[in-house]
Amino acid sequence: MPYQDLPPPPAGLLDDAGLFLDFDGTLVDLADRPDGVVVGDSLHALLRRLPDRLGGRVAIVSGRSVEQIDGFLGDTIRDFAVVGSHGAEIRPAGGTTLLPDRPASLTAAERAFKDRFADDPRIVIEIKTLGVAIHYRGAPEVEQEAHALVDAFAQRDGLTAQAGKMMIELRMAGHDKGTAIATLCEDAPFAGHAPVFVGDDLTDEPGMVVAAHHGGAGILIGPMRDTAAAYRLDDVAAFLDWLEKNA
Ligand SMILES: O=P(O)(O)OC[C@H]1O[C@H](O[C@H]2O[C@H](CO)[C@@H](O)[C@H](O)[C@H]2O)[C@H](O)[C@@H](O)[C@@H]1O
């Protein structure tokens, strides 16, 4: 059944709000491989001006690790809060990253995933601070097998199977982007300001839910689907254009 479409976000949505931004598929277009995304000069320039415009109430909230996000955005996000690993890592602006220990069981999973797909260069096994992902964008026919493999390790080791765009990740349980946004909303500079969360992927849905519960809203980037977002824009370019005009 087709879902009823959502309107674009209104002008003024960011007035007095806290802004929480997903990375892949929201700030940068998806690429064939995880290390293939391109962060252009215009994105750096746009991000650099956000802390002043939003009273410091701006955060990146990614499924990637904080370390990976720093690798792409570097000094540009010096004054941002950064959430990584689907909510498991949190670094307040100017602070240090709070992150749990890496479960030892992830190392065994890493080995098993690499062994299974070692002879297929189309598959990328992404080793992350608190997870390990199988990317099958280059070989969509292995989707079911990759999901079954990750599901088996998740059940055996009490971890979570996190589905994403052409990938499945084994990650720590007990947190998500929503829990991280709720944590940031407890303290300055976000406390008392409605959160606006912008994302494109399934891992972003808990963030959309928490934004709405805190009196804010989610913005879905991409085609309409089942979502807790209140607004939608077609793609990364449309969102960056909206952000240029509204922040
Ligand atoms: O929460 P995000 O910041 O959106 O990160 C989600 C995942 O993004 C990356 O994978 C996705 O983007 C890749 C590069 O464009 C693409 O090749 C892949 O198919 C996508 O799933 C990243 O590699 C993952 O670790 C993130 O969890």
From TrEMBL:
Reactions that this protein is recorded to catalyse: alpha,alpha-trehalose 6-phosphate + H2O = alpha,alpha-trehalose + phosphate
According to its UniProt entry, the function of this protein is described as: Removes the phosphate from trehalose 6-phosphate to produce free trehalose.
Give the pathway listed in the UniProt entry for this protein: Glycan biosynthesis; trehalose biosynthesis
Which keywords annotate this record? Hydrolase, Magnesium, Metal-binding
Q: What is its EC number?
A: 3.1.3.12
Pfam families in the cross-refs: Trehalose_PPase
Q: Which cofactor does it need?
A: Mg(2+)
**Protein family:** Belongs to the trehalose phosphatase family.
Its recorded name reads Trehalose 6-phosphate phosphatase
Organism, per UniProt? Sphingomonas hankookensis
